[in-house]
Design brief:
12 helices; globular; alpha/beta; about 425 residues; 13 strands; Aspartate Aminotransferase, domain 2; 2 domains; single chain; seven-stranded mixed β-sheet; Aspartate Aminotransferase, domain 1; about 30% helix
């Protein structure tokens, strides 16, 4: 039956250091020179470099309007405000995602209702959205989780039927394709993070892109007081000079300079990542208990930079082996993996009993006409998701010998699961 599992005293499957295969971000002298040029000019808080970055970023997405923010959370907040979300309004959002996809709505006096996910895509399930729509719903926030594109055609049909805005959170999916179209170009507006762990890096930054000039102008008005000269809407011009949201969302130009260089190389880098990650999963085709988290081949959909790469775990194929024990055994082979995903927000106390602004009741329901809290059991797949996925190595280059060893470690454990 081959070599004994390393966890039980056998030799490790992985003998090579992953090293450059997984290092990220990639910073070169070109990045350093661009940042130093801004630093030495003293113009860190200007907008000249940032506006060029916005033009180039918008061109990458094929979008006419782009606005840089100090981080992705700010961009998401701006997108919500720009879509007209205010006191008493509701958004629908997946429960399993980073908190910034939902919690900024509190600052606008709105609240959130969560929809369940699909356990293969890990994204919001379009079939579960409609039952959560009320007369207070204003927008659907979709998150292309870990780079996997949401089922945007179905979601857009639902949104248009009910007159809702669609905000795409593209923080995990810059460069991912949905049936040949870039994520972030399908909804009404897209917002995303470009922090240093993301696939597209600008240090700490956020971007908003849209085809709608009105949405863009409202985002400018909200947190970019120094750019109110670009406003044309009389209802906005009337109040120019003061940030409508009482916030300053300007992006520091050191980040803009870094982002410009990173964007220049981004297409080639995600091609390398896709080659490496697809090779990894191709090696694991047919492996029991393990399934690739990627769109079907030939669908026209891709994983972009494959941010926060995950594998799908099917314990029933391995005799019910606990995912933690599986991950422990694979990690002992030299392939470091771990179970889990983002916390299901609908169960978190911050979303259920925290009174953040002194309303005398939980913030989530303070501006709602109903108690929309969702107890355990209300979103069963979201509640199960953390035990149904595991973190995998995020390969950035097609170093076949390294990738083959890591894939072999997973297959070795899966095929000897009965020994655990």
């Amino acid at each position: 039956m081959g070599e004994k599992l390393a966890l039980l005293g056998g030799p490790k499957a992985v003998t090579r250091d992953a090293g450059e295969a997984t290092r990220w971000p990639i910073i070169t002298e070109e990045d350093e020179a661009a940042v130093l040029e801004v630093l030495r000019s003293g113009d860190m808080s200007g907008t000249g470099v940032t506006k060029v970055f916005e033009q180039e970023f918008g061109a990458y997405f094929g979008m006419p309007h782009c606005l840089a923010h100090c981080n992705g959370t700010a961009a998401l907040l701006s997108a919500m405000f720009a879509c007209g979300i205010g006191v008493g309004d509701e958004i629908i959002c997946p429960s399993v995602t980073y908190w910034a996809s939902a919690l900024p709505v509190y600052q606008l006096g709105g609240t959130v209702v969560f929809a369940d996910c699909d356990l293969d895509t890990l994204n919001i399930d379009p079939a579960d959205i409609e039952r959560h729509i009320s007369n207070r719903t204003k927008a659907i926030v979709v998150v292309h989780y870990c780079g996997y594109p949401c089922e945007m055609d179905e979601i857009m049909v639902i949104a248009r039927r009910h007159g809702l805005k669609v905000i795409e959170d593209v923080s995990h999916a810059q460069g991912s394709l949905y049936q040949g179209r870039l994520t972030g170009t399908i909804g009404d507006v897209a917002a995303m993070s470009l922090m240093s762990g993301k696939s597209l890096v600008a240090g700490e930054a956020g971007m908003l892109v849209t085809r709608d000039r009105g949405i863009w102008e409202r985002a400018v008005a909200f947190g970019h007081y120094e750019r109110h000269g670009d406003l044309t809407d009389p209802d906005l011009v009337r109040y120019k000079g003061f940030a409508f949201g009482g916030v300053k969302h300007r992006l520091m130009q050191l980040a803009s300079a870094l982002g410009r260089v990173q964007l220049r190389h981004y297409t080639a880098r995600i091609e390398a990542i896709q080659s490496a990650m697809n090779y990894f999963w191709d090696l694991l085709e047919g492996c029991p208990g393990v399934k690739a988290h990627r769109p079907p081949k030939g669908s026209g959909s891709t994983m972009g930079g494959w941010y926060a790469a995950k594998g799908l775990y099917r314990a029933e194929e391995l005799g019910g082996l606990d995912i933690d024990r599986f991950c422990e055994a694979v990690s002992a082979e030299g392939c470091s993996i771990g179970a889990g995903a983002n916390t299901a927000m609908h169960l978190h106390p911050l979303l259920n009993d925290a009174d953040l602004y002194g309303h005398g009741k939980p913030t989530r329901i303070a501006n709602s006409a109903r108690d929309l809290r969702q107890p355990p059991g209300s979103l069963p797949r979201s509640e199960k998701l953390g035990r149904a996925v595991f973190r995998i190595p995020h390969f950035k280059h097609l170093y076949k010998d390294v990738i083959e060893e890591h894939a072999a470690a997973i297959r070795k454990v899966a095929e000897r699961a009965d020994e655990l």
